[in-house]
Structure formats: C-alpha cells, structure tokens
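FAQ: What does the model actually see?

It sees only this:
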Amino acid sequence: MAIAAAGAVLWRPAPGGVEVAVAHRPRYDDWSLPKGKLDPGETIHRAAVREVFEETGHRAVLGRHLGQVAYRVGRSDKTVDYFAARAVSGSFVSNEEVDELVWLPIPDAAGLLTYHHDRDVLAAFAVAPLATTLLLVRHAHAGDRSEWDGPDELRPLSAKGHAQVAALMEFLPLFGPTRVHSVPNVRCEDTVRPLAERLGCPVTPEKGLGEAGYQAAPEAAHSRLLTIAAGPGTAVVCSQGGVIPSLLDALGAESGVEGHRARKGSVWVLSLDGDKLVGADYVARP
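And it is asked to produce this:
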C-alpha cells in the first residue's frame, strides 16, 4: 500500500532574512516540518496548504516544489512532496497533532529538526528562500484550428477548455497571485479572465509573448517575462504552445531545465532568484 502526503517549509520574513516554522508532535515527541496525508482525490498542492493550516493555524501561499521524500512506514511506502509556503495570516493554537510551534532562523531550525530528510528539504529551501514565483499558463483547449472559420485570435474556448479553466481557478489561487497578464487573443484571455475578476485586477495584454510577437523578437519576450516576474507580488502569464517551451529553454539554459512540455491548460510554476531560474515545476493537469 502506498501512502501519499504533502507538506511545506512554512516561512515568513524576518530581520536579515527569513524564519521558518518547526512543529513539535506529541504523539511522536519529534520536531518536524508540517505535513500530512492526502485526502481522497486531493492534489499534493491543495494538501500542503490544508495541512499547514490544520497543524499550524497559518494560511499560506505556495512557492516552489522542494522535492519528494520517500520512506517506509511499517509495510507501506510513503512519499511526501514538500513546497515552500509563505505564511500570510493566522496564528498557532495547540492542537491534537501539534502542541508547540517555534519560528527560527534556518540554521537553528535545521539543528532542531529530528529527521535528516526534513533537514534536506530545509537545505533545498535555503538555496533561494526569497525566490519569486511566476505562473506560466498555456491557454485552455480551444478546439481544432482547422474547424474555426474566423480569425484565429477570436477562436473561443471549447467545453473542455472551460472545464480546464475551472480547474485552474482551484489551482492558481494556492500560489497567491496578484497580477494577471495574457496574450491578447480570446482563448488566452478567457483562460485567465475569471482569475483576474476574482482578484479585482485587469488582464494586462502581452502581445510580445504571443506566437507572432515571439517569432519577431524572442529576446524581447524573454526580457519581458523577467520584468513581469520582478514586479510586485506573484504574476500569472497566459501564453501559447508555440512560445512556452522556447521561453523556458532560454530561462533554463544554465539550470538544465527543458520546457518542451506544455499541454493545453497546464501550468509551469517558475521560481526565480533575480534573473536566475531556481525552480521550474510542471503541472500538466491542475
């Protein structure tokens, strides 16, 4: 029997850097990172946010994926996917799972953690604790181009596409987006417009990140994506299948990331430390 779980390095800004949360579990008398098993049908991303809240009382927004830990529990194989998670609100109250929560600088937290795999996860976080997040979305399904009689930029989403948008509306808010950008065609804008309406922000048009704009000036598109990422908060950018792999190849030239996957309705969660790509997590079916 396989057990799937998810957890996080819960962090908050502190003078001189960040501090992270370490939880004491009375059942095991250990100090660990917040984590727990997935509910039936739950994704690792949603489980990480839920478990952080249940164990620590803090609502958090996700950042980069920090890796997966695997070990045996009795006769079962257990995997735990960990994420960076910034605390945005809430406060700790002692509960059945956790009776004490302490906030510590990263070196002190590493010294307190009971398990080596938790220390490894924390070390992965420490590589870029203040990395910014950009969510690069490929537009949802819009049917077959050959079956559309009008201008391609007016091709609408299909029924399948609208279902993918609904899934994106459950997934993208887990990362705390604050800005929405899109290639100015119907299928791209309609993929992210519901999110923009929920956030109360405009959909900023990005013609240079569309297929025609990218072919005309690829370096300008790369520069524009970095500029968007460097802005305040977390940005969502909706683009096209003819652009996303090349953008990721340019961003990941030094990191070894290859962005050849970009199915319709998928998301690349990009983490950047300045102009350096430090994480690229592909979510094919949010």
